[in-house]
């Protein structure tokens, strides 16, 4: 893919940086895909050429290696991934040319798609911490949270108008909710859709504004929220409850609620991924003769068959008795479970009776 970047910009090899810049500006202006007669492919090509020639290092390499450089080293531009980083403006920072930088980038990457209405006024996100036990993490739990937050106004049901009055079509935007704003930018004239400031994007305004919320449709109050924490949730996970953050102004989008999960350490079990590890002690005779011992699992006890001659540190895997995963999260609601691991240790008595001491001494002679 040998491209002649000079030819693309209509320049000679000796072009100065100023000439490169001015040629680029002229061509980018002409071929911007949002303009009538604009052409996306051509526009990309121009940007590719400019990103190389405007950078003295890249230009030098391009001049020396030509095609090899263009097919190998020009990051991003040779593949479909035409990414932000490679965009020449970010590197050169000519923000002054473009007015609102962020908006311009949206225009670039949207390539002619109608712009969504702005979300100014969206309710804030709320982040809370929730501490649960391992048992609760195992079974899943419904947590009731009391949050003091912006919630829909009860007097007007969030509509912003006095009960009994009605909504009428906004005169400013004729009910469309958005206003078209014509903007002059470097690349030409664009029409952008913004929220109507009179009706805040709703297209309707209350004839009489609600006296409780002054028309915002929301007030700060204590509100109870039920959050279903799914079975298998792990310490450090964050759950997102969409739309349960603060209610937006004037019926605009609500924020989200984020729940940081903390699972308390457990006295018996140690969690490793979806598996649970537990220690079980046996006596020396049990280790020698073998035994059936009771071992607690997170959901009830099991009888574990310890074979004769089991030493300390031996691990038994109890299949399917670990933490659930996938439950409530996968489409088929199937719960898979990790395993439990029982680690055996041998009880060493700290103080022993005279009789035990004698027996042990005899035993030592035997072994
Ligand atoms: Zn309006
Ligand atoms: Zn109200």
UniProtKB/TrEMBL annotation:
<keyword id="KW-0677">Repeat</keyword>
<dbReference type="GO" id="GO:0005737">
    <property type="term" value="C:cytoplasm"/>
</dbReference>
<feature type="binding site">
    <location>
        <position position="173"/>
    </location>
    <ligand>
        <name>Zn(2+) 2</name>
    </ligand>
</feature>
<dbReference type="GO" id="GO:0031072">
    <property type="term" value="F:heat shock protein binding"/>
</dbReference>
<dbReference type="InterPro" id="IPR008971">
    <property type="entry name" value="HSP40/DnaJ_pept-bd"/>
</dbReference>
<feature type="binding site">
    <location>
        <position position="170"/>
    </location>
    <ligand>
        <name>Zn(2+) 2</name>
    </ligand>
</feature>
<dbReference type="InterPro" id="IPR012724">
    <property type="entry name" value="DnaJ"/>
</dbReference>
<comment type="similarity">
    <text>Belongs to the DnaJ family.</text>
</comment>
<keyword id="KW-0479">Metal-binding</keyword>
<dbReference type="Pfam" id="PF00684">
    <property type="entry name" value="DnaJ_CXXCXGXG"/>
</dbReference>
<comment type="subunit">
    <text>Homodimer.</text>
</comment>
<dbReference type="InterPro" id="IPR001305">
    <property type="entry name" value="HSP_DnaJ_Cys-rich_dom"/>
</dbReference>
<dbReference type="InterPro" id="IPR002939">
    <property type="entry name" value="DnaJ_C"/>
</dbReference>
<dbReference type="GO" id="GO:0006260">
    <property type="term" value="P:DNA replication"/>
</dbReference>
<feature type="binding site">
    <location>
        <position position="196"/>
    </location>
    <ligand>
        <name>Zn(2+) 2</name>
    </ligand>
</feature>
<feature type="repeat" description="CXXCXGXG motif">
    <location>
        <begin position="210"/>
        <end position="217"/>
    </location>
</feature>
<dbReference type="GO" id="GO:0008270">
    <property type="term" value="F:zinc ion binding"/>
</dbReference>
<dbReference type="Pfam" id="PF01556">
    <property type="entry name" value="DnaJ_C"/>
</dbReference>
<dbReference type="InterPro" id="IPR036869">
    <property type="entry name" value="J_dom_sf"/>
</dbReference>
<protein>
    <recommendedName>
        <fullName>Chaperone protein DnaJ</fullName>
    </recommendedName>
</protein>
<dbReference type="GO" id="GO:0051082">
    <property type="term" value="F:unfolded protein binding"/>
</dbReference>
<keyword id="KW-0346">Stress response</keyword>
<dbReference type="GO" id="GO:0042026">
    <property type="term" value="P:protein refolding"/>
</dbReference>
<keyword id="KW-0235">DNA replication</keyword>
<feature type="zinc finger region" description="CR-type">
    <location>
        <begin position="140"/>
        <end position="222"/>
    </location>
</feature>
<feature type="binding site">
    <location>
        <position position="210"/>
    </location>
    <ligand>
        <name>Zn(2+) 1</name>
    </ligand>
</feature>
<feature type="binding site">
    <location>
        <position position="199"/>
    </location>
    <ligand>
        <name>Zn(2+) 2</name>
    </ligand>
</feature>
<keyword id="KW-0862">Zinc</keyword>
<dbReference type="InterPro" id="IPR036410">
    <property type="entry name" value="HSP_DnaJ_Cys-rich_dom_sf"/>
</dbReference>
<feature type="repeat" description="CXXCXGXG motif">
    <location>
        <begin position="153"/>
        <end position="160"/>
    </location>
</feature>
<keyword id="KW-0863">Zinc-finger</keyword>
<dbReference type="GO" id="GO:0005524">
    <property type="term" value="F:ATP binding"/>
</dbReference>
<dbReference type="InterPro" id="IPR001623">
    <property type="entry name" value="DnaJ_domain"/>
</dbReference>
<feature type="domain" description="J">
    <location>
        <begin position="4"/>
        <end position="66"/>
    </location>
</feature>
<feature type="repeat" description="CXXCXGXG motif">
    <location>
        <begin position="170"/>
        <end position="177"/>
    </location>
</feature>
<comment type="function">
    <text>Participates actively in the response to hyperosmotic and heat shock by preventing the aggregation of stress-denatured proteins and by disaggregating proteins, also in an autonomous, DnaK-independent fashion. Unfolded proteins bind initially to DnaJ; upon interaction with the DnaJ-bound protein, DnaK hydrolyzes its bound ATP, resulting in the formation of a stable complex. GrpE releases ADP from DnaK; ATP binding to DnaK triggers the release of the substrate protein, thus completing the reaction cycle.</text>
</comment>
<dbReference type="GO" id="GO:0009408">
    <property type="term" value="P:response to heat"/>
</dbReference>
<feature type="repeat" description="CXXCXGXG motif">
    <location>
        <begin position="196"/>
        <end position="203"/>
    </location>
</feature>
<feature type="domain" description="CR-type">
    <location>
        <begin position="140"/>
        <end position="222"/>
    </location>
</feature>
<keyword id="KW-0963">Cytoplasm</keyword>
<dbReference type="Pfam" id="PF00226">
    <property type="entry name" value="DnaJ"/>
</dbReference>
<dbReference type="InterPro" id="IPR018253">
    <property type="entry name" value="DnaJ_domain_CS"/>
</dbReference>
